[in-house]
Amino acid sequence: MKEHTKQLVIEILRDFQDIPQHIKDREEELRHPVVPRDENVGGGRAQYKQNDAIDRLIITIDEDERLHKLKEEYEVVDYCYRHADGYTQKIIYELYIKRYPSYTMQGLIENGIIPYSQKTAYKMRNKFLKEVAKRLGIDSL
Question: Which InterPro entries does UniProt cross-reference here (predicted)?
């Protein structure tokens, strides 16, 4: 796996806990777009325009790429995490998902949290990262 792809997946993992809030914020942004105030008093604009905001909202939420990407990232990471073995979950949680990590990989091994060598632990982590990248379609970056 290329270093750039690996870093991209790690960033997604670090943001994993905040993705539901990002999704809510984006949906709210789409529901209530900021419309600039018209300062053109007495100008030639029509006063009684038809308000089709609801139609535009449905289309916008359905077609918003950023919103779809956030949902996809959340679903993929959640799926891969739930289907990983317990020790891989501990590694991923402690190193990336936990808001304030307490351990490094070496700390996990030295404190007996994972009963593997450093080489094996890194292989487990890399396998997880590759699976996430593959499911997101970014494994070839």
Answer: RinA (IPR006523)
CA 26/CA 46 separation, integer angstroms: 31
Amino acid symbol at 89:
Q
Measured CA to CA, the distance from residue 96 to residue 15 in angstroms comes to 9
Q: Which of 122, 84, 87 is nearest to 105 (CA)?
A: 122
Residue 126, token pair as written in the block: 């890399």
Domain ranges of the chain: 3-33+51-136
**What is the value of pTM for the model shown?**
0.80
Tokens 């490094």 identify what position?
Answer: 104
Look at the block and give the residue holding tokens 């891989």: 88
